[in-house]
Amino acid sequence: MRRNVWWLIAGSRGGENRARIIETLHEKPLNAHQLAEILNLDYKTIRHHLDLLITNQIVIPEGSGYGKIFFLTEVFDTEYNEFIQIRSNHNEPYTNDKTESCDDQENKDERF
């Protein structure tokens, strides 16, 4: 479980949003629409992250259709402190090493 959590939170794009979803669901179960409103994210973005969290056995849906409620799995709930540790050790959002920051681009422009 630790490897999955590390990859989902610290090792891939979207980890910050997934972490926010996990933290919110830890407080109380919600549906995707409620999560989108609370986290100020697009509904489709929330659904994408929920699908990844379901696949990795971190979140489980209850019910059906649009009002489906999402809970943390019992297994993940017992590992929540480990998630907090991973989250606190990884303060920076994922960045792709191949992309240049604005500062890098400005410095490159100054050389030419």
UniProtKB/TrEMBL annotation:
- Show where the HTH arsR-type domain sits: 16-53
Q: Where is the composition biased (Acidic residues)?
A: 102-112
Gene Ontology molecular function: any one: DNA-binding transcription factor activity
| Annotated InterPro entries | ArsR-like_HTH, HTH_ArsR_DNA-bd_dom, WH-like_DNA-bd_sf, WH_DNA-bd_sf
Chain intervals for the UniProt region annotation (Disordered): 88-112
Gene3D superfamilies xref list: Winged helix-like DNA-binding domain superfamily/Winged helix DNA-binding domain
Q: Per its UniProt entry, which superkingdom is the organism in?
A: Archaea
The record's Pfam families line, in alphabetical order, gives:
HTH_5
PANTHER family in alphabetical order:
TRANSCRIPTIONAL REGULATORY PROTEIN
Q: What is this protein called?
A: ArsR family transcriptional regulator
